[in-house]
Design a protein that fits this description.
Keywords: Ion channel, Ion transport, Membrane, Transmembrane, Transmembrane helix, Transport. Helices cover 75% and strands 0% of the residues. It is mainly alpha-helical and 113 residues long. The chain has two domains: 55 residues; 31 residues, no CATH class. Helix 5 packs across helix 6.
């Protein structure tokens, strides 16, 4: 009889049961709060840096002499054609339409799947 009692006690006190018997809900709650606050801090720092580094020029009235100088300086420079996203969309559109060799290969691979 002693051997069956030992088996019962060892089976009920396995390491998994010991682990599950201790609840540490506060660890989950604390890690969630820390993650949330860290995310807010990172976004705040990013916004502050963007505000400090990427300010827009103030709007000037049409008859302002400074604006005339700025327009003259801009005409000497080449106009910006678009953003990176515009270029990426155009490139993706060309690939999907199959107008280039790479696009034809891509379209053929997609259709074969």
């Amino acid at each position: 009889m002693a051997s069956s009692e030992e088996e019962v006690t060892t089976a009920s006190s396995s390491p998994e049961d010991d682990c599950l018997s201790v609840r540490k809900w506060w660890c989950f709650l604390l890690s969630s709060i820390i993650t949330f606050i860290t995310g807010l801090f990172i976004v705040g720092v990013w916004r502050c840096c963007a505000y400090a580094c990427c300010r827009k020029e103030p709007e000037l009235s049409p008859n302002d002499p400074k604006q005339k100088e700025q327009k003259a300086a801009r005409q000497g420079k080449q106009e910006f054609e678009g953003t990176f996203m515009t270029e990426a969309k155009d490139w993706a559109g060309e690939l999907i339409s199959g107008q280039t060799t790479t696009g034809r290969i891509l379209v053929r691979l997609i259709h074969s799947l």
